[in-house]
Design brief:
The chain has 516 residues and is of the alpha+beta class. The chain is built from ten helices and six strands, in the order ββαααββαααααββαα.
């Protein structure tokens, strides 16, 4: 009984920590489009806070310090943009070349050695050892670093100056004021909670990255499914070709015996020899396809070349599992649990955080000035020097620039994120329906071939063989029956592979390991 619940299913993907994601940093990422992100946003505009000087003390001393130095992470508004995690490209399905005859073996199927690598073991190794996933996984600690950057407080500014320093000395004819020495500290006050909004945006960005990483795992497991089914298909092709070769070799021996007795011609022997040679070539091609699948598995599982070429799998093409739930339930599971859909939902949360961040950036920081020390040098007047302190505040007036453009852009981005989610959900529904339909059709086809095609084709071939050996039918009649049996065997092998692939594709479409 399958539970309609979202959670890691054994073998389908790794168990990741609960999302607490960061915003990506600048540069390209391995994880694909940054869902929910606005992309690069413009600065605060002409005359914005980044270009304003920090006011100095109350009075004439004004430090020419750009306000941008108090904002962690540089001048860009909000959290720096970065592309998100991309899913690995899907491997194309390859076919074992079918050149020679195939026959259904009389013995049961081969499932591999007892110590062979099972699909579950292969998935476990893939999740932990695959180099592509390791590279993509490193996006997550980078996102943690982005959260740290976004949460940093702006630095206060220390400013010291000296004023009224004479060129030479003051005279009675040209008196001047006392030379003055100032020390002041300017501290930015985040009155609109930009830091909080920045940190929240970074966290929602990491949530997106985590879901995208899980989707990258889903696609890479699907690549493993592809190579796994190719391996089993090649192994089954070898068995079918070996069975055909064995039967044809027996037939060749009997035909040669009949030819020596004059019951068959040399042409009959040549026809059978050609079929034996074709079966031998088919075995060679199957072995090469099997070795190719081993090497591909080695790449996915990060195995040394010699270890990969000796790899043996334990698995079956036959479907002995109960059918999956109805398609509507499968669709519900996919929409709830598939990591790419979850990533788009997280993208909406991120877009909402971008709106809050753009709104918080509508007003620059208020700058509080504390001047703890001012010294006025009164030696020119034969008086003692005087010290004093000052306190002031600088408030940028949001008359023209209130970040209106970026606020409007972030709201449009939020609407766009909702549309993208609807589009992805539509795609997922179609993928699940297609995968479920392929599963049903191929399962039915395998059953029909096993019950309605193989038995009569076998009887016709065996009857023609007996008549041929007895000399009651010529070689053409038998070879036609053998050709029809070969075609039935070929269809059976192809449909077994297609159905195994359909089972695994359904797992990928739903995003959970429903079928073994």
């Amino acid at each position: 009984m399958l539970l309609h619940a979202c959670g890691p299913v054994s073998g389908q993907g790794p168990t990741l920590p609960e999302p607490s994601l960061s915003h990506p940093s600048e540069g390209q990422s391995l994880l694909g489009p940054a869902l929910g992100g606005m992309g690069p946003v413009t600065d605060s505009g002409p005359g914005g806070a980044a270009d304003e000087p920090l006011s100095g003390r109350v009075g004439t001393a004004v430090p020419r310090v750009p306000a941008a130095i108090t904002a962690p992470g540089g001048r860009q508004v909000g959290v720096p943009e970065r592309e998100g995690i991309t899913s690995p490209s899907a491997l194309p399905l390859s076919e074992v070349p079918l050149i020679g005859p195939l026959s259904v073996p009389r013995v049961g199927e081969e499932i591999g050695p007892e110590d062979g690598l099972t699909l579950d073991q292969a998935i476990e190794r893939l999740v932990h050892e695959n180099l592509a996933l390791k590279a993509r996984g490193l996006e997550l600690p980078q996102a943690d670093a982005d959260i740290l950057t976004a949460s940093l407080r702006a630095n206060p500014v220390l400013f010291a100056d000296s004023q009224l320093i004479p060129y030479g000395a003051y005279t009675e004819a040209r008196p001047g004021g006392q030379t003055q020495y100032d020390l002041n500290i300017t501290y930015p006050l985040d009155v609109t909670h930009k830091r909080k909004a920045r940190t929240h945006a970074a966290t929602t960005a990491k949530n997106v990255l985590q879901a995208q990483y899980q989707d990258a795992v889903r696609i890479q497991i699907d690549n493993l499914y592809t190579v796994y089914s190719e391996y089993l298909g090649a192994r089954e092709t070898i068995r079918f070709a070996q069975a055909a070769r064995q039967g044809l070799e027996e037939l060749l021996g009997r035909t040669r015996g009949l030819q020596e007795k004059g019951a068959r011609t040399i042409a009959d022997v040549s026809r059978i020899e050609a079929l034996v040679e074709a079966a031998e070539i088919q075995v060679m091609d199957g072995n090469e396809a099997l070795m190719s699948a081993r090497r591909n598995l080695g790449v996915l599982l990060n195995m040394p070349g010699n270890q990969a070429e000796a790899l043996e799998l334990r698995g079956t093409l036959r479907d002995s599992s109960p059918p999956p739930p109805p398609v509507d339930e499968l669709i519900g599971m996919a929409l709830k649990c598939r990591p790419d859909v979850v990533a788009y939902r997280m993208g909406i949360h991120r877009a909402q955080a971008e709106v809050k961040l753009a709104t918080a950036n509508r007003m620059s920081d208020v700058y509080l000035l504390y001047q703890p020390y001012t010294f006025q040098d009164n030696r020119a007047t034969d008086k003692l020097g005087a010290t004093s302190w000052a306190l002031g505040v600088t408030v940028p007036l949001p008359i023209y620039n209130r970040n209106q453009g970026n606020i409007q852009r972030s709201r449009v981005n939020l609407t766009q994120s909702h549309v993208e989610l609807a589009e992805r959900e539509q795609q997922v529904v179609n993928e699940v329906r297609q995968a479920e339909r392929q599963y049903v059709l191929t399962r039915s086809a395998v059953q029909r071939i096993e019950t309605r095609l193989i038995p009569p084709a076998t009887r016709v071939r065996d009857d023609a063989y007996r008549l041929y050996i007895r000399g009651e039918e010529d070689a053409i009649i038998f070879l036609n029956a053998q050709r029809e049996f070969n075609e039935a065997s070929r269809q059976y092998r192809d449909m077994l592979v297609r159905h195994r692939q359909a089972m695994l594709r359904l797992n990928t479409a739903v995003g959970q390991r429903l079928l073994p």
